[in-house]
Design a protein that fits this description.
single chain
């Protein structure tokens, strides 16, 4: 139980660091939290978001894919996965992930914006 409490404290620290723009520190906090509490979807998602923000979309995709595998109804994780795929130039995979996010929450603006960008990249202007 002690390790779960420690993981939670590290997770909360990581969230605060993200809010302060301290991306490298947040990465460290989330990575430590994940080591203590493996396969926690919220930790996987946040570490994936941070790694994408740090310019490492391939690592982000790995983490976010695991997060959606564990929590398939998380529109946020699907949206971040779509954005990471788009950042890495994998536009078809991005579109699939973003469509999944939008199937869970159709009016979510961030996935809609990412989807529009991906469709533009695929020259699918009519959509």
């Amino acid at each position: 139980m002690h390790s779960l409490l420690q993981a939670r404290a590290l997770f909360e620290q990581g969230v605060q660091q993200v809010e302060s723009g301290l991306w490298a520190q947040a990465e460290s906090s989330f990575a430590q939290a994940l080591a203590l509490a493996p396969d926690r979807p919220s930790v996987l998602m946040n570490l994936g978001v941070v790694r994408a923000a740090l310019g490492r979309p391939t690592q982000a995709i790995e983490l976010l894919s695991r997060a959606v595998e564990l929590e398939p109804e998380s529109f946020e994780s699907w949206g971040h996965l779509g954005a990471a795929y788009a950042e890495s130039g994998q536009f078809r995979a991005a579109l699939e992930a973003l469509d999944r996010a939008l199937s869970l929450q159709p009016q979510a603006l961030v996935p809609l914006r990412h989807k529009a960008s991906v469709l533009r990249e695929l020259d699918r202007w009519h959509e």
